[in-house]
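Solute carrier family 40 member
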Amino acid sequence: MQLIITLYASYLFGNLVEQLWNFAWPAALAILHPSLLPVAVVGFFGKLSVFLGAPIVGKLMDHFPRIPMYTGLNAVQVATQLISAAMVIYALKNAGRTSTSALLLRPWFIVLVIAGAIERLAGLALGVSMERDWVVLLAGTNRPVALAQANAMLNRLDLLCETVGASVFGLLLTKYDIVTCLKISSALMICSFPILVMLGQLINSVSCHALDSSRTPSDESICADLLDVRKIVQNGLSSIKHGWNEYKQQTVLPASVATVFLNFNVALAPGAIMTALLMHRGISPSIVGAFSGLCSVMGLVATFISSSLVKRVGILKAGAAGLIFQASLLSIALTVYWAGPISQRTPLLIFLASIALSRLGHMSYDVVGTQIIQTGVPASKANLIGGMEVSIASLAELVMLAMAIIANDVSHFGFLAILSVSSVAGAAWMFCRWLGNPTDEQRELFIFDPHFQLQAT
């Protein structure tokens, strides 16, 4: 019990600082410049680093000892967060009004983009190590109930961090200027590093040094090959090609593709684009923070609703219900946005409430979809296919962020919103079509699902 609680504490503390920064930088850039383009560019290169770098980082994590890798990744993430904060503070103090194209070529912005890309990749690697490796090792694969409970708790802690991080920074913005808020965030980042390192060492000590080794036997030649800058592109492309071949052959491919489609929704979801839009519309920072927090609360509620929904209608119908619910609520939000200015109180509340409620469907499918994929993917290929899904999902977000870069004016947000709703509706249609036309292999995998039991009778 002490071991798993220490793991939760490490995950909670590291995630809280990360989520605080994820809300802070787009809010600061929105104050700095009236266009969505700077936020979209930073986000684009962050997703690009994940898409290209995740396969190689995953291999490195398999061959390096866990604790040194954990410490190194935390150091990289904190350092890049501090560099990014320093660049934004410098810009806020020294940069005057300038054109968008001129801003993108400023040295401080280029450094911000590079640091942001590295920070995203380090953050993803830390998340994967905790959620796919450490929790499995410490909870035990031979204890499925304990492992399921640990996974659910990590999911809830992640949503809690989103709520608290956004709310805290929004509250700080109402009391202090943006530069002071960024300095407070930087102080929290600096304080977090030694605490995270100590928690990692404590976890290892309590687990009788179970984390000292790597997942696979360490091979210096493999590590040297992966770190060879001359081969980094070749290694990355090779990993992506192999993963894609395995990914497209899985039985539950439509369920996984539906998950990828949901990642096209970058406009009507809590995130950098939505934060920048609301700040540009003159919405109070406290309302923006409360909206992000409410979205996280809805996601947290969904983790409890999904389990009861699965018991009532089965895992497959529960997945369809989540997708249809999300598509319906986002359609309402899109209608309200096009009907009139959302700066007025009533349209704004309906717009934000529809998006927040849609997170119930989104997170319900996130939980259910994961279980569907776990059921249909062999254990020997779970990490490979799961990693490929993350990479493809990052590619989906890259496409949408590229659209945001092209349509960077706030007046073009409606175009991004249409694409977002279309992607979610497409995911719902694809999943329902797959559910309505099951194959024999699908029936065999989900033989105990009420949907197929009802058809059999």
